[in-house]
Amino acid sequence: MPITNEEESALNEHFVNNSYVEGFSLSQADQFLYKKFTSPPSQDLQNLQRWFRHIASFAVENFDFPRCKSSNLAIVSNGIKIPIIMNGTEENGIQNENEDQSITEDIVDPWNVQASSNKGIDYDKLIDRFGSSRIDETVLQRFEKLTGQKPHHFLRRGIFFSHRDITRILNLVEAGKKFFLYTGRGPSSESMHVGHLIPFIMTKWLQDVFDVPLVIQLTDDEKYLWKDLKLDQCNKLAYENAKDIIAVGFDKNKTFIFSDIDFIGGEFYKNVLLVQKHVTFNQVKGIFGFDESSNIGKIMFPAIQAVPSFSSSFPFIFGGKKDIPCLIPCAIDQDPYFRMTRDVAPRLGFQKPALLHSTFFPALQGASSKMSASDENSSIFLTDTANQIKKKINKYAFSGGRDTIEEHREKGGDCEVDVSFMYLQFFLEDDEKLESIRKQYSSGEMLTGELKAELIKILQKMIAEHQERRKAVTADDVKNFMTPRLLNFVVKQ
Ligand code: TYM
After folding, report:
1. What are 36-76's pLDDT values in tens digits?
2. Which tops the pLDDT comparison, 69 or 160?
3. Percent of the chain scored above 90 by pLDDT?
4. Mutate to test the pocket of ligand 1, among 164, 263, 305, 330 (most ligand atoms within 8 A of CB)
5. Residue of the nearest CA to atom 28 in ligand 1?
6. Which of these ranges, 80-94, 308-322, 371-385, has the smallest mean pLDDT?
7. Average pLDDT for residues 446-450, to the nearest whole number?
8. Which of 192, 135, 422, 314 is nearest to 201 (CA)?
9. Reported pTM
10. What is the 434 CA–ligand 1 centroid distance (Å)?
C-alpha cells in the first residue's frame, strides 16, 4: 500500500531525530519503506525528503542493504503506526533476521560504515576489495629509519593499517625532497567527536617528523549538499571546527585551512573543472552509488575533494608548481574519493596522491559501526564534560566482560570485542601498560569497572587538555590559519 499524506507527516517527525528507520544504521527496513513511495515526498517535509534522497542514492540495482535487526518493525509517530517489515515479505525480496540470509560484505563508503559481523570491519578483506596495500613491518622500519624515532603508536598498532604509494613518499624523504600533506573535515556538527581526531593526530605527527606543509579542506559545501542544513550554518560550522583542528597543534607557519564555500576560485577552481571534464557520471555512479535522483551538486562534488591533492591548486603556497607530491591521511571511508582522484590524475598530468588509511574509532556500542556524530549516544564529543565522559563510558561502552564476577574471574574478559579496551589502544600511548592491562583483563584479574576507570581517566585528561587548547585559539589565529598565504618551507625537487 502506498504511503498516505498522514503517514508522510508522521515519518517526517520520525526522521527529525533518526537517520534511518532503525535508529542510526541503514537496513533493509529503509529499502522496504522507500519502495512504498510512488513519488518523492512533499517538499515541505524536509526530514523525510533528506532520508528519501539519501536512500535513493543506495537504491541502485543490486545494492546489498544490511539486514534489519528486528522483524515486524513499525514506526510509531504522531500517534499512528506505519508497519515496515512484516513476516514473509518475499514479494518485496527483502529478508529479515529470521531468515538465514546475512550481508556478506562490510559497507564502507564516505556515508556509511556497517560491519557484516559484530567483530567489526574485516580490514584485511577491505584491503583486497579496495586494492590498497597493508602497512607492514618493512614500511614501519622505513619510517623509523627516516625519522629516527619509533613510528607513532597509530602506525605501530595497525590503527593506520593500509596505504597507497607510501613507499614513493618515503623514497622522496630519503632523497631529501619534500611533499605536502592534505586532510579534511566535513563540518556537519558544532562539536567533533574523538574519532574525528584520529586522522588529525596522525597528520600532526607526520607534519612534525617530516617538517612539511599541510592543507586542510573544510567541506562545508559537501555537508550542505548531503545534510538537512542551511548553507550559512555549514559555513559557520566550518569555522567552529577549524578551532578544534587548530587545537590539535598544527604549525601555524606551515598549515593552510580553508572553507570550500569561501575559498574556491582561481587555480583551485580551474583544477576542479579539469577533473569534472575528465570524469563521467557513469564513473561517479559506479564509485559513489549516485543515481538519477541525486542532486547535481553531489555528482560534481568529488572533483572538489580531489583537487587539494594537486599542488597547483595552491599557487600562493607552491608557486604554481604542478608536481609536488601529496600524502593524505584519513580513515578508509574517504578512499572512494581518492580512488577517483588517482584514476584521473595522470590523465591531467598530475601526480597521484599517496594515502595512509586508518581503521575506524568504534561506536560506544561496539565495533560493528564507527563513532558517528549523528548518534549522540555512540560518541564521546570534544565538548563533553568529565562527568559526561564517565557516564557514557560506564553506561554505553560495550563490554567484553562476563555476566558475573565469578565467571569473569574464571574465564576472563574478551579484549577483541571490548570497546573500552579498543579505545585504550587508540589513546594509551604506553605499550607496556597497555599489554599489562590486556593480560590482566583477559585473565580475569581486572574487572570491567576497573578497565573502564582506566579509560575514563585517560579520556577525561585528553579532552580537558583539548578544551584548554581550544579555548586559547583566538579569532586572529583562525583568520591567520585560514588566510591564503606563503607557507614557510623549502621544496627541493
Ligand atoms: P568527516 O568530517 O566525515 O571526517 C573527518 C575525518 O575523520 C575521519 N573519521 C574517522 N576516523 C576514525 N574513526 C571514526 N569513527 C571516524 N569518523 C570520521 C574521516 O575519514 C576523515 O578523515 N569528506 C570529508 C572531508 C574531507 C576529507 C578530505 C577527509 C575533505 N577532504 C581529505 C579526509 C581527507 C568528511 O566529510 O570527513
Report:
1. 888 889 888 988 988 888 888 777 656 777 777 665 677 87
2. 160
3. 71
4. 330
5. 184
6. 80-94
7. 97
8. 192
9. 0.82
10. 27
Q: What angle do CA 295, 111, 179 make, to 5 degrees?
A: 100
Nearest CA to ligand 1 atom 34: 183
pLDDT (average), residues 415-429:
96
Distance from the alpha carbon of residue 184 to the mean position of ligand 1, in angstroms: 6
Residue reference for cell 532503525? 22
* Residue 97, pLDDT above cutoff 90: no
- Say whether pLDDT at 87 is over 60: no
3-state secondary structure of 30: helix
Query: Could you tell which of 192, 206, 334 is best to mutate to test the pocket of ligand 1, judged by most ligand atoms within 8 Å of the CB?
Result: 334
In the predicted model, is pLDDT for residue 98 greater than 60? no
Grid cell listed for 473: 585559539
Determine the average pLDDT of the residues in 200-206.
98
Q: Are 326 and 311 in contact (CB under 8 A)?
A: yes
Three-state SS at 183: strand
Q: Which residues pair with 82 in a beta bridge?
A: 75
Q: What is the pLDDT of residue 377?
A: 80
DSSP state of 145: H
- Which residues surround ligand 1 with Cβ inside 6 Å? 110, 182-186, 195-196, 198-199, 217, 219, 222, 305, 328, 330-331, 333-334, 358, 360-361, 370-371
**Among 196, 260, 339, which is best to mutate for testing ligand 1, by the most ligand atoms less than 8 A from CB?**
196
> Cα(331) to centroid of ligand 1, in Å?
6
The per-residue DSSP string of 471-482 comes to HT--HHHHHHHT
CA 198 / ligand 1 centre spacing (Å): 9
- Rounded to the nearest whole angstrom, what is the distance from the C-alpha of residue 199 to the centroid of ligand 1? 8
Selected from 3.40.50.620, 3.10.450.50, 3.65.10.10, 3.40.50.10540, the CATH number assigned to the domain covering 113-363 reads 3.40.50.620
Contact 183, 216 (CB under 8 A): yes
Fold category of 372-471 in CATH: Tyrosyl-Transfer RNA Synthetase (1.10.240)
The full set of domain ranges for the chain reads 5-101, 113-363, 372-471
> Residue 13: is its pLDDT beyond 80?
yes
